[in-house]
Specification:
This protein is mainly α and 57 residues long. It has three helices and no strands.
């Protein structure tokens, strides 16, 4: 089975947010302090407007 990609759609938002909720505290951990990881939540997130505009997210 190969991989493919497509632009995110409005109906993908819940799944994307779940993945981001799991990833944001884990992926930067080797590179950031715990305080920086916590602070990163204010700058990392899903851009719903890009999805609504059909540009991606």
């Amino acid at each position: 089975m190969g991989l493919s990609s497509r632009l995110a759609r409005v109906e993908d938002i819940a799944a994307l947010e779940a993945v981001m909720e799991a990833a944001i505290p884990e992926l930067p951990r080797p590179f950031l302090t715990p305080a920086q990881v916590a602070a990163s939540r204010t700058t990392m997130g899903l851009d719903r407007q890009l999805i609504a505009d059909g540009i991606g997210g």
